[in-house]
From TrEMBL:
<dbReference type="GO" id="GO:0005524">
    <property type="term" value="F:ATP binding"/>
</dbReference>
<dbReference type="InterPro" id="IPR050334">
    <property type="entry name" value="Molybdenum_import_ModC"/>
</dbReference>
<keyword id="KW-0997">Cell inner membrane</keyword>
<feature type="domain" description="Mop">
    <location>
        <begin position="291"/>
        <end position="357"/>
    </location>
</feature>
<dbReference type="InterPro" id="IPR011868">
    <property type="entry name" value="ModC_ABC_ATP-bd"/>
</dbReference>
<dbReference type="Pfam" id="PF00005">
    <property type="entry name" value="ABC_tran"/>
</dbReference>
<dbReference type="InterPro" id="IPR008995">
    <property type="entry name" value="Mo/tungstate-bd_C_term_dom"/>
</dbReference>
<dbReference type="GO" id="GO:0016887">
    <property type="term" value="F:ATP hydrolysis activity"/>
</dbReference>
<keyword id="KW-1278">Translocase</keyword>
<keyword id="KW-0500">Molybdenum</keyword>
<dbReference type="InterPro" id="IPR003593">
    <property type="entry name" value="AAA+_ATPase"/>
</dbReference>
<dbReference type="GO" id="GO:0015098">
    <property type="term" value="F:molybdate ion transmembrane transporter activity"/>
</dbReference>
<dbReference type="GO" id="GO:0016020">
    <property type="term" value="C:membrane"/>
</dbReference>
<keyword id="KW-1003">Cell membrane</keyword>
<feature type="domain" description="ABC transporter">
    <location>
        <begin position="1"/>
        <end position="233"/>
    </location>
</feature>
<keyword id="KW-0547">Nucleotide-binding</keyword>
<dbReference type="GO" id="GO:0140359">
    <property type="term" value="F:ABC-type transporter activity"/>
</dbReference>
Amino acid sequence: MMLEVAVKHAFKGFSLDVAFKAPPGVTVLSGRSGSGKTTLVNAVAGLLMPDQGCIASGDWVLLDTAKGVRLRPHKRRLGYVFQEGRLFPHLTVRQNLAYGAWFAPKDALREDTARVVEMLGIGPLLDRRPAALSGGEKQRVAIGRALLSAPRLILADEPLAALDEARKAEILPYFERLRDEVSVPILYVSHSASEVARLATTVVVLDAGRVVAQGPAADVLGDPHLRPGGARDVGAVLTARVLRHHEDGLTELQAGGLSLFLPQVAAAPGSSLRIRIAAHDVILSCERPQGLSALNILPGTIAEMRAGDGPGAIVALDTAAGRVLARITRRSATAMALAPGMRVHAVIKSVAVAAFDIGLVF
Ligand SMILES: Nc1ncnc2c1ncn2[C@@H]1O[C@H](COP(=O)(O)OP(=O)(O)OP(=O)(O)O)[C@@H](O)[C@H]1O
């Protein structure tokens, strides 16, 4: 199933004109503040009636202005996860979940409640009311309620934005499981580079109401010409497998035949991980460095370079482990005579990779 969205809408002073495809999995809408993400989500939800648009997945048509099709919001079969859980305060968790299921069409293929409860770890919370739940727990219940309404699409508009770092870290794995174990596609709005790197199957980048990039996450995040969240957010994503945990606290990973060492990762040997490597944490070296404290040295070939207006440059390196981006100074790029096609080594400190930048693939 492939959701196809094309929407045009003009407000005074801002126009949205976008078209993108959301394949199964998580499609993250990213882009700076005011780029049109919420307007687009509202159009999908049916809360905004755009001037023109077509939103459909096969024969399931939510909107087709040319044909006069405009499904009302409650007919769209969408599951929502908002910033704040928006649970019913007077109902218990069990009743909140049942409310979601009550809205599912009788003939719909529904997730099994017990499975959803297990997947989200909310069994012990079933008899509590929302006032007795933490922010993270509320959000897990909200995800469960959305899932049990048998949605054909889940809309998550910055669902972690209101949570502190610890709660974010608690919730993200549930979205990872949702992506990998539930067949409902998810449209997920996020500003956070880590969330995008960990969750996205597909990334759609908006800027001033237009789509400036869309495609598989590794391609979009590995494109040195894009920096949706600013220079500090540039970083590529690698997929690696846990090989073993060493006694000195390091975890050894394998990616494309190369070893990577990171501070202890809480995942069993054999697990598959997505790791965001921030471009500013990568050093480039022409020779294979010797006598260096950094443990991760990935040889590769320069694929592309982008010199910005300031002192920085982004170098895209294709390694056996995948695409790595390095943010270095233009002065260094010139001094090292870096150019596409050149063989260099990417050097990454183990401790530079934060736990929050490591996601699980289920
Ligand atoms: N009802 C409206 N009338 C006029 N302009 C609007 C309306 N709603 C949104 N806009 C404008 O449309 C632009 C896009 O807003 P939108 O909320 O979609 O951005 P966003 O990418 O979701 O931003 P943020 O990340 O800050 O939530 C903004 O310039 C906003 O001021």
